[in-house]
Amino acid sequence: MNLFGTNFRIMTWGESHGKAIGVVIDGVPVGLELTESDIQKELDRRKPGQSNITTTRTETDLVEIVSGVFKGKTTGSPISLIIKNKDVDSSDYEKIKDRYRPGHADYTYNIKYQGFNDYRGGGRSSGRETATRVAAGAIARKLLKTKGIEIFAYVKQIGTIKAINVNFNDIDKNPLRCCDLNAAKKMEEYISALKKEGDSIGCIVEIVIKDCPPGIGEPVFGKLDAKLSYALMSIGAVKAISVGEGFKVVDMKGSENNDQMVQDGFLTNHAGGIVGGISNGQDIVLNIAVKPTASIAKEQKTQNKQGNETTITVSGRHDPCIGPRIVPVAEAMVALVLVNTDLKF
Amino acid sequence: MNLFGTNFRIMTWGESHGKAIGVVIDGVPVGLELTESDIQKELDRRKPGQSNITTTRTETDLVEIVSGVFKGKTTGSPISLIIKNKDVDSSDYEKIKDRYRPGHADYTYNIKYQGFNDYRGGGRSSGRETATRVAAGAIARKLLKTKGIEIFAYVKQIGTIKAINVNFNDIDKNPLRCCDLNAAKKMEEYISALKKEGDSIGCIVEIVIKDCPPGIGEPVFGKLDAKLSYALMSIGAVKAISVGEGFKVVDMKGSENNDQMVQDGFLTNHAGGIVGGISNGQDIVLNIAVKPTASIAKEQKTQNKQGNETTITVSGRHDPCIGPRIVPVAEAMVALVLVNTDLKF
Amino acid sequence: MNLFGTNFRIMTWGESHGKAIGVVIDGVPVGLELTESDIQKELDRRKPGQSNITTTRTETDLVEIVSGVFKGKTTGSPISLIIKNKDVDSSDYEKIKDRYRPGHADYTYNIKYQGFNDYRGGGRSSGRETATRVAAGAIARKLLKTKGIEIFAYVKQIGTIKAINVNFNDIDKNPLRCCDLNAAKKMEEYISALKKEGDSIGCIVEIVIKDCPPGIGEPVFGKLDAKLSYALMSIGAVKAISVGEGFKVVDMKGSENNDQMVQDGFLTNHAGGIVGGISNGQDIVLNIAVKPTASIAKEQKTQNKQGNETTITVSGRHDPCIGPRIVPVAEAMVALVLVNTDLKF
Amino acid sequence: MNLFGTNFRIMTWGESHGKAIGVVIDGVPVGLELTESDIQKELDRRKPGQSNITTTRTETDLVEIVSGVFKGKTTGSPISLIIKNKDVDSSDYEKIKDRYRPGHADYTYNIKYQGFNDYRGGGRSSGRETATRVAAGAIARKLLKTKGIEIFAYVKQIGTIKAINVNFNDIDKNPLRCCDLNAAKKMEEYISALKKEGDSIGCIVEIVIKDCPPGIGEPVFGKLDAKLSYALMSIGAVKAISVGEGFKVVDMKGSENNDQMVQDGFLTNHAGGIVGGISNGQDIVLNIAVKPTASIAKEQKTQNKQGNETTITVSGRHDPCIGPRIVPVAEAMVALVLVNTDLKF
Q1: What's the rounded Cα separation, in Å, for the pair B262 and A304?
Q2: What is the pLDDT of residue C229?
Q3: Is the Cβ of D70 closer than 8 Å to some Cβ of chain A?
Q4: Which of A345, C269, C213 is nearest to D112 (CA)?
Q5: What is the domain range of residue A137?
Q6: Domain harbouring A195, CATH code
């Protein structure tokens, strides 16, 4: 199932080490100004090789608009976007192709696809497919901006290092895409050390939707938080999602958790901007837990495709913490959800 | 959007204080033995008035099969289930109908539906609609059992009281539907006290899927964990979802979180049974955070429909902790997801 | 698959000789005035026993609105409609239950459902299910009227007897629902004669959509004519569909078939109001071929469920020409298509 | 809406005079052998410039498989196919871009897309998009062949010239794709004459599905004939569809139209292989009416985009009868329907 959305439908395609990856976007309203650079600037935030704490694979991730735009504006026809794969090096994968990498989808894909799947670079299970989500999401975000809606995601915690302040302006000023420059510095040091160990670490990414009008989302199976959970959990490394107080509600009383109202509006935002599955006009606040990168240089026990026990060391080129690169992906998925609600464009 | 599922499609209907609630289930395979008591036994686990720690509304929640079953077996035609509302008392609601109940969907529904929605008992936003999910889920569970798949949900934590042991056999032996009888006792005392205060409390419900075969779920937008997150987050009171280690991955290293393999299989199950969105044959383990019941007897500040500040005391008949009654709903939603995967029946 | 529509979704249920039939309608906009009589008046046009040329089964087909309407207006919640089956007489069917009725779905259902289907009265394959389409369609038509769109269907030809004039006002003035009273009279005589023979006859029903605005329908798989064809062909007895000139285009030249334009608009309407799958503002004109009722009193050769040759005489209570009762069904299906286009409500 | 299918989903994209056209196919089972030549051979049957009775635009229509195939077999990942546009000449269109071509979608597109659509060569409304249907259909047909199912389409009538014999082997032996070589010869002469006049003609294409097993298709909105009608009517030039006897049922009696059964099976096939929306194991027989090509050299009256009356002569390069090139498109659409039924692969 490589299809997402009902009104603003996207179908993504492509493998990590194939010729190209891409996405077709069907249902974009007519007359939206759109250039490749609108999309490229978001892809540049996700692309590999941005700093010394990310993978050294250096894809330029240049996007080409192949259809659906005429004289600089969207035509209402499907928009086909293609990104060629350039820096493909499958040699590391050929060596380990018969051994399941722990934490990766090698084992589950091998069972599901009976060995026919393209194993090079993880094939379709690679995080590389998220580039096409970011590309489609860039168009969705442009559309949302016409309604004044903006989405901000940022790294909030890595290991035990937490952001104290949230400053949206700082997010793109540090390679961690952390919302707090002080925390970012500590995170950077921590990750550099981890990299030497050949290990990786998890993190929390927080997403805030600003200026979503009230009334968006539908009962009972079209709840905005349910759709956001689906979309965010569809990102490979995500293992948990929370809205507003999230798991903290477990030891909160009703009298503490309810958002009371006064003349000017709500006194608090424990709900995270969504009640009964419908936006209430406050900031929509989501957190996702991102697991540590599965590819690590440390030796691990595993099985091979013949079912025998063996060991594996995953060299390749990997991010010790995937959080900074998940940030634009999370923003894209949230944008893709919002353009598939009852918001009118 | 009151439709769920692609193969095993359900459409639910009905308001809390209307004539009846119901569900139509389309896509049930032929030849499954099915009686009303198969469904009733699940409904009895969700129905109100089961113990002194739940609401005193005493719906019998008797289900009637109106179509789709002939000579005791499913026919392949849509199954229509109807549950009449009996113990409807809207008097409490008439008094407060112009004031938004904090933590409830009154405000968001009022904006979305421009005041046309049935406000009595929360109308369509009431937890009462979940009875129809349980009814449809009972059929899904029966189908899953033909494949040996079983689902167990239970209360794992209420406030700061945590279950220590997990014993599936104890779940239906205590009114909390807790997996640990000792913890259950403490929870019961705690809730009785809370009830006197007129307050409520949140909880964690854990769900375990046993014997799901490997290979179920699809990349990239058909991931099993993404679909489960959507389904569970569509339950009114749920504010967070985690798979396997969930938010704990934040300070885990790759070397700690990866599930290594040996000859006999996986050494650990940090992933919670799903990798790359596909089941790996281990137990699938999910946690959901359930918010404290919004209806509390304590006075709260709010607005009325005219936009003026006022106060409200929600008397009515409410559960101080919704967890025990969410247990069968969570099981039902998980079952409804599983029958909508690539499992073949 | 008992689900129709994407925005205005309906799920129908019920067997011919079961307890009841019904439909749930999800996605009706809020604030539409709606009473049971709005629906009943359409059902009365489809119900059996209206005249001496239709079946003598005398269902009252009384509809009950069970949810989704509050204080006389739609609430945005799903609308559940139930019609109880009253005049059920399965005795004729028990006698022939092991023999496939020629022209009926007995054989195909038996193969598909492995004998588990409810055979009484044809069960789910009976034309009785179309009552629920008419009920849902009544709401759709009411919604369309708020935009000034109206739908007229009528019998245009029975056997070789053709309507000469088309007068919308005459349609409900004759039991044939023919648009021409003279032709209607001849048709009535013809059918009375046929009835004595124990035979049946086919017909053409024409449907005209008035005042559909231009621009409705979408390329390339959302074409308005494609969606109408799907909807009309889903009616049991329909064997062909045409738009505008239909099969007559086969020996028309481009210079004859093209609709040229002048200052005031189109000179002709060969296209039947739809070009490139999109309405052009002219009348939308559709024709459907309705097969002769399969149930006839004449003896026919057939097989039984054991695969042996035998004969059958289908007594029961049947319409010698199904056209007059298909008229409201065709209107309903067209209405249900239109509320699932990009028309905004 | 450029998405077709539920299990075997395709999303098509591209404009007639853009850079390329293409399709993504999602849901193809793993392990199917697939090469570009499997697809190319079908595209070659549809491509322009095949004979002197078709358009002189000479696209090579070379297809490239960009993803989803590894080591010569399908992987279960989406298959992206791209066909570059080569022989693009927009000069004729620039001259007439402000005038609506009669019989074309210029007027309806202009209203719908508010003038933002790519008008060159008809843009998205051009028959050129059907190349991507043929490409996707080639994969569907390969899959169907693994079940022994084959599809044959052919021109059966052009103007008043009818095929007398149906010989599947002759279809690809004449440029008309007619099933009767004698009729083909007359058709060819007739079209050559028409071409000189600058006019065009309609035709009938018949489609036969061989060896479809019984039991395929679903009541009540998943009927096989309803889905086929939708798919075939989504082809630009199609104005009518019939199953089996089609419009001939109008003056047939039940005793004539019913397909009686004997020991060996059905005595006749008036139903065209589908009863109650479900295949009965006989040949499935469909007819479609194809309108005369709208582009003709004769002068016609029309409006321009400013709403003023004017005239137009459509020179360009066009097929005087589109039938021969619709044949592979019709086969493709039928194949795409069949892989989206309950057939198991």
Answers
A1: 10
A2: 98
A3: yes
A4: C213
A5: 3-338
A6: 3.60.150.10
- What pLDDT shows up at residue D59? 75
Q: In b/e form, how buried is each residue of D11-41, taking b as 16+ CB within 10 angstroms?
A: bbbbbbbbbbbbbbbbbbbbebebeeebbbe
D108 in contact with C, Cβ within 8 Å: yes
Q: How far apart are CA C163 and CA C159, in angstroms?
A: 11
Query: Shortest CB distance from D114 goes to which of A31, A117, A118?
Result: A31
How many Å apart are CA D269 and CA D253, to the nearest integer? 15
Q: What is the pLDDT of residue D203?
A: 98
Integer Cα distance of D132 and D142 in angstroms: 16
- Judged by CB atoms closer than 8 Å, whether chains meet at C252 and D279 is answered as no
Which residues in chain C have Cβ-Cβ distances shorter than 8 Å to D12?
A: 220
Is residue B312 domain-resident? yes
**C343 within a domain of the structure (yes/no):** no
Q: Work out the percent of chain C whose per-residue pLDDT is above 70.
A: 99
SS (H, E, C) C140-207: HHHHHHCCCCEEEEEEEEECCEECCCCCHHHHHHCCCCECCHHHHHHHHHHHHHHHHHCCCECEEEEE
Q: What is the mean pLDDT of chain A?
A: 94
Q: How many angstroms separate the Cα of A205 from the Cα of each of A155, A280, A327, B75, B128?
A: 4, 23, 7, 48, 34
The string of pLDDT tens digits covering residues D24-62 is 999 999 999 999 999 999 999 988 777 777 776 677 899
Q: Kind of pairing, strands A73-74 and A300-303?
A: unpaired
Is C254 in contact with D201 (Cβ distance < 8 A)? yes
Strand partners, B116: none
Distance CA A184, CA C235 (A): 64
d(CA C30, CA D182): 62
Domain count within chain A: 1
D6–B contact, CB cutoff 8 A: yes
Give yes or no for B6 touching D (CB within 8 A).
yes
Residue A90 has pLDDT above 80, yes or no: no
What are C255-309's pLDDT values in tens digits? 999 999 999 999 999 999 999 999 999 999 999 999 999 999 999 999 999 999 9
> For the residues of D70-120, what is the DSSP string, one character each?
ETTEE-SSPEEEEEE--S---HHHHHHTTBPPTTSSHHHHHHHTTT-S--G
Distance CA B118, CA B23 (A): 19
Determine contact, residues B104/C61, Cβ cutoff 8 Å. Answer: no
Q: Under an 8 A CB cutoff, do D117 and A74 touch?
A: no
Which backbone phi and psi does B68 adopt, to 5 degrees?
Answer: 85, -5
Beta carbons of D327 and D234 less than 8 angstroms apart: no
Answer whether residue A343 is part of any domain. Answer: no
Decide if B40 contacts B63 (C-beta within 8 A).
yes
Residues in CB range of C94: below 8 A, 6 or more apart: C120
Q: How far is the alpha carbon of B33 from chain A, nearest alpha carbon, in Å?
A: 28
| pLDDT value for C289 | 98
Classify residue B344: in a domain, yes or no.
Answer: no
D170, D335 in Cβ contact below 8 A? no
pLDDT band at C316 (very low <50, low <70, confident <90, very high): low
CA distance B224 to A108: 12
Query: CB distance from B124 to chain A under 8 Å?
Result: yes
Interval D249-265: pLDDT, tens: 999 999 999 999 999 99
Measured distance CA(C163)–CA(C179) in Å, rounded: 7
pLDDT tens per residue across span C276-287: 999 999 999 999
- Quote the tokens at residue A49: 């090789």
Contact A83, B241 (CB under 8 A): no
**Do the Cβ atoms of B223 and A204 come within 8 Å?**
no
* Distance from C-alpha of C196 to C-alpha of C202, rounded to nearest angstrom: 16
Full-model pTM = 0.97
Cα–Cα distance measured from residue C63 to residue A318, given in angstroms and rounded to the nearest whole number: 64
Helix/strand/coil for C95: helix
CA-nearest residue to A344 within chain C is C344
